[in-house]
Amino acid sequence: MPQSIRSILGRPRVTKPKPRSSSAQTAQSSSPRKKRPPPESQDDALFPLKFGDLGAAPILTPQEELALRDVPQAMRYIRSRMFSAVPGSGFTSTRTAEVLNYRVSIPPLVTTGHVHAVLTSSPGRIEREVVELVGKGVLRKVRVERRGGMGEALIEAGDLDEMLRRAAASGEISDAARAKFWQVLQGNAAAQTIEREGDGDHGLTASQMDELVRAGFLTSSTAAPGSTLHVRPEDRTTLTSIQHVSRFASGTVSAVGGPNAIHLAGGGGGAPALTRRGGGLAAFRIAVPGHGRFLKLADGAVDWVREALGKTKWGEGPESWLKEKFEGNGLYGTRWKEFWGVEWEWVLGQAVGLGVVEVFETGSVGKGVRALGG
């Protein structure tokens, strides 16, 4: 009986898959592909609803509030809790030295708004106490122009005296300049500016004023166009009006200030006329060295709080969530990388004192923090 070739050779070891029917492919391709839903932000997903508001909540605990009875105590409390201790491990020796040197350069200042945020007394009572202490020479109020509430701060007179002594010991100012400046401060406890009265016993000499300006204890009270030597760098402006220059075509003499640009800038023998125009500096504003660095740190921390709340759906969130977000990632997080290990309580106090946020009781997740758009 004849056999087929397949029966003799047997089944092949490799079998080809059967081709799919065209109807199945058509049905699969015709079915619409599902679109992925747009990813929602994590903060919106966490806080889709507004929190309950049972009223304003204090920043401090009741025990801490009882321990603070006056403005000097509140200032010392704020300063003692500004930075956390530098960890013994986790940083290189270079980074540790950098952090410690930065903290030493921060002056012992406390903003007036932070004092109001910590104390539970009425604002009027706190302000009267500040005025009384300033008049007695216990405190001194210093201001930085065009910085709003952040630019007004308080410093204890003893701390300012210690800063002057350290500056004299390091050679930044002479002992005579330190003694005369301190005498002037004691005689004008509430003064914000000091006038140069000549070389007599009632005023600082020109050389002493120059020493104090270079050390950061004095700055210009007005940004006079004729002299910018004693003006803070951020207050210095050019002598040529940008609006005036922008009216003229590029490449012309008028576009660079006109034919008298060099003369108005003090060159070409124009310095005497410039001095007459500015009138000279008759007064200097009392300052504290490192105040600008303090403001930069405080502004950056408050901006972080504002941005964090701005990412939520309703501009509010639990304080515990904000604290965890601020202190997240340990030594490699924002708190240590950008803000030198500043404490969360200090940051919250600054934000509340400036009116940027308010703290309220939610009744469900503890304290909440709400942005006010300040």
From TrEMBL:
Highest taxon above the source species: Eukaryota
Xref: InterPro entries: STK19-like
A Pfam family matched in the record: Stk19
Residue spans of biased composition, Low complexity class: 21-31
Region (Disordered): 1-47
GO process annotations (BP): positive regulation of Ras protein signal transduction
Family, similarity comment: Belongs to the STK19 family.
Protein name: Serine-threonine protein kinase 19
Protein's organism: Metarhizium acridum (strain CQMa 102)
